[in-house]
């Protein structure tokens, strides 16, 4: 791409309503300066740090993980691009501590696409932005229906990215050249996309909203570990008895321990469907275990033995140690139960949902970005005694709503709460 073409992409602006029309996108097949070499030594990393510290403007950042192949969500490749610095590909396996790179860019705005997906793995290697611009979230706020990086690049900038390697095993070493080309192209136009979306948001009067959202993402602490993650086993809804739930827990925990030790995705060790089948069947011996779907393939007697031992541990548990039928959940019950448990609250929720949906449509943005459904449920289930706009605003603020969200939704929620007052 020439300098003139780069300038053109930075100033291009497409209205969300016109994103399905216009000329066909131009395929982007090669990075502007070619595929950068993979940075894999301390000396090479020092040169990258110096180069990017001397660049100008925002820095595009992306990370590739090996989801479905390796345990956890660690990064296996980091891509960066900045004006005056070009592009870089950094191997976080060979260079596991990138704090020096993160520190060099600390005062710089980071441009990411779907930032919340990459921030955890970036944080693990010492890369923590203080300011960011999320192009996916910006696209949502601007009213684009398709906000993946490929569709956004096509609709806003007119270039088509090749997306054929998004689900490959990025833990592979050495990384094939086509994969590296794909990775470099992922950040090639990210700053250009950011600039075009900033212009679009400014024109719609939504830039301040976006900046508030970005600041909230950057300031958010790491999420706490999920409680009882085994309950998220696919097909868990079929498991009704507490003893069977204990089998799921034991098998899930055994699988997780093996997967972590072998650095493999848990699904490659044992599928969720097999765990649920074993819980429902409660096999009486090893041959019965081996006959279940998912256990006979790719594992010998030793493998079957360890899974059967997990079933036996669950079978031997005293009743008091069996998991409870449901998790202890804070907050309101599922909305489907409101009509029976509290009809007045159900009416409040219906009114609030209708008003929020209508306002989101007026603003051309997803309802969940205007205000989270969970926040609406909590306010409607336990409304404040004082339903003035100031009091409702404080409740929303306590639930993490940003100021622009409060400004847009407080009048709607106040009317919904006042129209259907809580029962004495």
From TrEMBL:
PROSITE patterns given in the database record: HRDC
Q: Which SMART domains match?
A: 35EXOc (SM00474), HRDC (SM00341)
The record's annotation in Gene3D superfamilies points to:
HRDC domain, Ribonuclease H-like superfamily/Ribonuclease H
* Compositional bias per record (Polar residues), positions renumbered to this chain: 12-21
InterPro entries given in the database record? 3'-5'_exonuclease_dom, Exo_C, HRDC-like_sf, HRDC_dom, HRDC_dom_sf, RNase_D-like, RNaseH-like_sf, RNaseH_sf
Protein name per the record:
Ribonuclease D
Region (Disordered) spans which residues? 1-34
Q: Which residues form a coiled coil?
A: none
Give the source's domain of life in one word: Bacteria
Please report the stretch or stretches of sequence annotated as the HRDC domain.
241-321
């Amino acid at each position: 791409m020439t300098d003139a073409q780069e300038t053109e992409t930075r100033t291009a602006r497409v209205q969300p309503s016109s994103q399905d029309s216009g000329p066909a996108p131009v395929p982007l097949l090669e990075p502007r300066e070619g595929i950068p070499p993979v940075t894999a030594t301390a000396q090479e990393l020092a040169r990258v740090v110096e180069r990017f510290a001397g660049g100008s403007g925002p820095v595009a950042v992306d990370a590739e993980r090996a989801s479905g192949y390796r345990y956890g969500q660690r990064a296996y490749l980091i891509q960066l691009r900045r004006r005056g610095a070009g592009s870089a590909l950094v191997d976080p396996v060979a260079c596991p501590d990138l704090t020096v790179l993160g520190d060099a860019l600390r005062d710089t705005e980071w441009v990411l696409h779907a930032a919340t997906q990459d921030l955890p793995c970036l944080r693990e290697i010492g890369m923590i932005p203080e300011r960011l611009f999320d192009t996916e979230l910006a696209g949502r706020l601007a009213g684009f229906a398709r906000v993946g990086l490929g569709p956004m690049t096509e609709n806003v900038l007119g270039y088509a990215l090749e997306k054929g390697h998004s689900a490959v095993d990025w833990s592979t070493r050495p990384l094939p050249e086509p994969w590296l080309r794909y990775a470099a192209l992922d950040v090639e136009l990210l700053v250009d996309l950011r600039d075009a979306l900033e212009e679009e948001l400014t024109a719609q009067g939504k830039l301040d909203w976006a900046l508030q959202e970005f600041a909230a993402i950057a300031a958010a602490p790491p999420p706490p570990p999920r409680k009882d993650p085994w309950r998220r086993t696919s097909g868990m809804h079929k498991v009704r008895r507490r003893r069977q739930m204990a089998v799921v827990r034991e098998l899930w925990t055994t699988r997780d321990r093996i997967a972590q030790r072998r650095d493999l995705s848990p699904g490659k060790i044992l599928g969720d469907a097999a765990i649920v089948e074993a819980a429902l069947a409660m096999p009486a011996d090893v041959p019965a275990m081996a006959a279940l779907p998912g256990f006979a393939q790719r594992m010998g007697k030793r493998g079957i033995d360890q899974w059967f031992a997990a079933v036996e541990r669950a079978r031997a548990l005293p009743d008091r140690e069996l998991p409870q039928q449901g998790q202890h959940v804070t907050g309101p019950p599922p909305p489907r139960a409101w009509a029976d448990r509290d009809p007045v609250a159900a009416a409040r929720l219906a009114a609030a949902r209708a008003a929020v949906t209508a306002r989101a449509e007026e603003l051309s943005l997803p309802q969940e970005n205007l205000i989270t459904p969970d926040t609406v449920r909590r306010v409607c289930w336990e409304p404040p005694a004082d339903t003035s706009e100031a009091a409702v605003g404080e409740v929303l603020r306590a639930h993490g709503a940003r100021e622009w969200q409060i400004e847009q939704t407080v009048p709607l929620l106040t009317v919904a709460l006042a129209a259907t007052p809580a029962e004495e």
